[in-house]
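User: Let's play a game. I give you a shape written as tokens, and you guess the letters that built it. Ready? Here's round one.
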């Protein structure tokens, strides 16, 4: 169907030409002089297009005056220089073709502002709002920029499986994938469900990370990245956790923790600069309505670079502030979100990369440091959010990896293929995972992670 996107129309200046647009009515005002102002949006840009429709139109009464908020319509008209303040152009309609109307009595998105909580209950309609439209465009930019960043650096885009038999993080918070009907489940002699009879002949789950598969390819093709959905059955109801989220995971051969941190910092900086350059009107909107510090913070982070400290140094900085924390920390504790934010917002006022965490609470695959206590891990923390990247140098020594797995209570036989990588042509390698939604939050200022993914999956919530 012929029409031009509003974002392109808004760039034109060939006044007098005919244009056709299609979209949804954001507002309609009728003037006494027998004409109406319609603001039309089509999602291509946050700015609406002003259309003037007058009663000379044959269907003015039957169509134009029935165009309520949310109605879909196609309009052809003359591109005109606008006399009004705040807009450069408008369209003088010569043809109005309505599609579905939206009953003002029942359509929930009227002029009055609707809370983000309420919008989650109508997640199928919320893309019509300014905010969710802008979030969607920023999210799209971040995905595109991700591919550009890695492709420009010779990484191969790798598709790793979503169904897996391995617990990549060794954290045990996985969703089971099964075709067994619980009512008629086959049982072993001791009464347990017999997964040998299941679809894959063994227990299988939705993956928590593509990393282990990515390692197999990095140790053949030098540098790869995955970008896909990951699943975690953690029962955490926070503003930064989802049960289904999207993760970008690069993996590089012949690399140590420093190379890994360099790559992560370059990538995060690239993403911020990309949206600053390509989503200007969206970021201005967020800066005005959602988080008035957003633009200052993004510009600052794009310029300031990252602080890099060890976990042990971080604990040294946090301990004196223990009185102000809900969870005071000592060496050996994992960092909570309040500690991450204290480091980035109070101490350094910029992103911080924390390295060399205790072995005790980190994953089995991380490379053990010579001190015998820590591993070559890193987390990138940003103001307002906390952790957006988690990564490590991987343990490339067969005997040390096997030892770590034994200590963590893992079945080595089950990971035979992963250990094979250390038996044949092992090499130092490293990688990380970046949570896409956390970066969308960071670059939009949106407080709740449920509002930066189209249909959030969280405990007790899988509507839509
Ligand atoms: O730190 P995580 O758990 O690291 C891994 O999964 C590694 N296997 C990655 C790797 O080295 N290839 O997760 C990485 C990132 C976190 O920093 C966070 O941004 C995001 O994934 N993340 C979540 N985002 C939303 N909801 C959740 N439940 C998340 N869990 C992790
Ligand atoms: Mg982590």
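Assistant: Ready! My guess for every position:
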């Amino acid at each position: 169907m012929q029409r031009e996107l509003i974002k392109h129309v808004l760039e034109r200046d060939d006044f007098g030409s005919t244009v056709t647009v299609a979209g949804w009515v954001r507002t309609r005002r009728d003037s006494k002089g027998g004409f109406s102002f319609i603001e039309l949006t089509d999602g291509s840009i946050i700015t609406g297009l002003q259309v003037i429709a007058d009663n000379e139109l044959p269907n003015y009464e039957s169509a134009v005056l029935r165009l309520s908020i949310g109605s879909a319509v196609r309009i052809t008209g003359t591109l005109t220089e606008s006399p009004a303040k705040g807009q450069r152009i408008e369209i003088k309609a010569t043809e109005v073709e309505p599609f579905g109307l939206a009953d003002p009595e029942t359509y929930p998105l009227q002029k009055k502002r609707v809370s983000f909580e309420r919008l989650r209950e109508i997640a199928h309609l919320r893309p019509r709002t300014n905010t969710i439209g802008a979030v969607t465009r920023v999210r799209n930019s971040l995905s595109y920029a991700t591919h550009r960043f890695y492709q420009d650096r010779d990484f191969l885009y790798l598709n790793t499986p979503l169904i897996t038999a391995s617990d990549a993080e060794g954290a045990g918070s996985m969703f089971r994938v099964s075709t067994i009907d619980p009512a008629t489940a086959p049982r072993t002699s001791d009464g347990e469900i017999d997964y040998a009879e299941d679809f894959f002949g063994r227990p299988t789950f939705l993956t928590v990370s593509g990393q282990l598969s990515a390692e197999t390819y990095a140790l053949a093709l030098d540098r790869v990245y995955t970008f896909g959905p990951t699943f975690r059955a953690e029962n955490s109801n926070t503003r930064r956790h989802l049960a289904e989220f999207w993760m970008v995971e690069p993996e590089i051969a012949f690399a140590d923790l420093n190379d890994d941190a360099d790559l992560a910092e370059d990538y995060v900086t690239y993403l911020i600069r990309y949206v600053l350059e390509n989503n200007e009107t969206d970021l201005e909107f967020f800066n005005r309505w959602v988080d008035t510090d957003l633009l200052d913070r993004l510009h600052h982070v794009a310029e300031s670079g990252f602080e890099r400290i060890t976990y042990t140094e971080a604990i040294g900085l946090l301990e004196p502030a223990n009185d102000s924390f809900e969870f005071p920390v000592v060496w050996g504790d994992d960092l909570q979100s309040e500690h991450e934010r204290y480091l980035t917002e109070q101490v350094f006022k910029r992103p911080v990369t924390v390295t060399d965490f205790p072995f005790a609470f980190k994953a089995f695959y991380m490379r053990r440091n010579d001190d015998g206590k820590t591993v070559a891990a890193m987390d990138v923390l940003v103001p307002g959010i906390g952790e957006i990247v988690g990564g490590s140098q991987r343990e490339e020594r067969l005997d040390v990896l096997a030892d770590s797995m034994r200590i963590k209570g893992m079945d080595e036989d089950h990971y035979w293929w992963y250990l094979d990588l250390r038996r044949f042509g092992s090499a130092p390698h490293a990688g990380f995972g970046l949570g896409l939604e956390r970066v969308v939050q960071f670059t939009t200022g949106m407080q709740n992670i449920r509002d930066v993914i189209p249909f959030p999956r969280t405990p007790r919530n899988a509507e839509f």
